[in-house]
Design the sequence.
């Protein structure tokens, strides 16, 4: 629980309020993607690759890149 609190504190510093809200929504829908995104964000922050807070648009781009290799299954009913 303490580690989760530390992540939340770090994310408040890294993300705009809109981006933090989006990440919370992702957490409810796809916990695995949320965990990967948080790890990536913490990595970016620790490596000094972030100049400013990540905006909602930037977070959307990061999330889309993390999911673009995933295959989709479509079922067509005729």
Sequence:
């Amino acid at each position: 629980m303490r580690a989760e609190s530390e992540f939340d504190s770090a994310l408040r510093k890294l993300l705009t309020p809109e981006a933090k809200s989006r990440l919370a929504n992702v957490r409810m829908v796809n916990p695995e993607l949320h965990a990967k995104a948080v790890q990536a964000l913490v990595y970016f922050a620790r490596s000094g690759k972030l100049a400013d807070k990540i905006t909602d648009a930037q977070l959307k781009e990061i999330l889309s890149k993390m999911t673009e290799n995933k295959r989709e299954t479509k079922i067509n009913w005729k």
Q: What stands out?
A: The CA atoms of residues 4 and 10 lie 10 Å apart. The radius of gyration is 14 Å.
